[in-house]
Write a structure and sequence with these properties.
By secondary structure, the chain is α/β, with parallel strands linked by helices. It has a domain of 151 residues: Ribonuclease H-like superfamily/Ribonuclease H (Nucleotidyltransferase, domain 5), CATH 3.30.420. Helix 2 packs across helix 10 and helix 5 packs parallel to helix 10. It starts with a helix and ends in a 14-residue tail after the last helix.
């Protein structure tokens, strides 16, 4: 099987349609009697993934492009307001699909995870921070990697070394990374089932006796750099090369999937646009794995 966008879209649509038919409770509720949608949920999810992979940050421009170039794949395309409304209603479905696709890869059983968070900027002016619908969720935070303050959110990612998202969360910029990781593990207990000795590589912000005890109780072994005043910790020789892995994953989200150009103005809008990009990354890795591509996280075959 080839690794190209049309093949990926077809494979994603077929699997999504099958999964939604076998688990109809995962699809958005709609009345039994009424107008039947002209575009199915599986088609809409596929359309959203293609938008993220092709780098279209404007929904209106994306739909104009799709009408000109993708009619063979999508006989009916909604207008921008309908597309936006349907996409927001599919938020929980998209989050579920990320986990289903991840579990359908050979990387799911990898015994090393990396964890980190990355800024998702939502505005720059004081007026935006004061009047935005995101105020109260988005907040001011500091990005140590770029030595700058920002106003927005943080995407917390728990990934394999291939970049496959295992767990994720979107929080305010000041949220405690340790508590978010524990929350991600608590929200999906199956993540740690049968993973005794699973290694989690993190930066020095993931520290604390109670935190490490909680991870150990879940069967996870934390590797992180030694903090000032601590006795040397084992595994320090692995941090520098593997630290670059999570930085590279974050760069893929921002440089190729335009994470910080999400264009969302409401909590629901930002959430589904971030989910759209997480699903696009997961889909690309899933398809590369099933087509035996040498680099699982490569998006080069799908961005044109």
């Amino acid at each position: 099987m080839d690794a190209d966008l049309d093949t990926l879209a077809t494979a994603l649509y077929v699997r999504t349609d099958d999964w939604l038919k076998s688990a109809p409770e995962r699809a958005p509720w709609r009345p039994a009697v009424g107008i039947v949608p002209k575009i199915s949920d599986a088609e809409l999810v596929t359309l959203a993934v293609m938008q993220a992979l092709l780098g279209h940050t404007s929904e209106a421009r994306w739909l104009r492009y799709a009408r000109s170039h993708l009619r063979a794949l999508f006989p009916y395309l909604p207008k921008q307001p309908g597309y936006n409304k349907r996409l927001r209603r599919l938020g929980s479905t998209i989050g579920w699909l990320v986990g289903v696709l991840a579990r359908d890869t050979t990387m799911w059983t990898d015994d090393v995870w990396v964890v980190d968070s990355t800024p998702v900027e939502c505005g720059r002016s004081r007026e935006t921070a004061r009047r935005s619908d995101l105020a109260g969720w988005a907040e001011y935070g500091y990005c140590a990697s770029h030595s700058r303050f920002f106003w927005g959110l943080r995407l917390h990612l728990l990934c394999t070394l291939h970049g496959l998202p295992v767990g994720f969360a979107l929080t305010g910029a000041k949220a405690d990374e340790r508590q978010i990781l524990l929350g991600v593990l608590h929200a999906d207990p199956d993540l740690t089932t049968g993973r005794v000795g699973q290694i989690v590589i993190a930066d020095k912000n993931y520290y604390g006796r109670e935190f490490e005890t909680a991870l150990a109780d879940a069967g996870l072994h934390l590797l992180r750099p030694t903090r000032k005043g601590e006795t040397p910790r084992a595994g320090a020789e692995f941090f520098q090369p593997l630290r670059q892995v999570i930085e590279s994953i974050n760069d893929t989200f921002k440089g190729q999937l335009d994470l910080e150009h999400h264009g969302g103005h409401t909590p629901a809008g930002v959430w589904v646009r971030v989910l759209q990009r997480v699903l696009a990354m997961t889909t690309a890795i899933w398809h590369n794995d099933h087509t035996s591509q040498p680099i699982k996280r490569s998006l080069l075959a799908y961005d044109h």
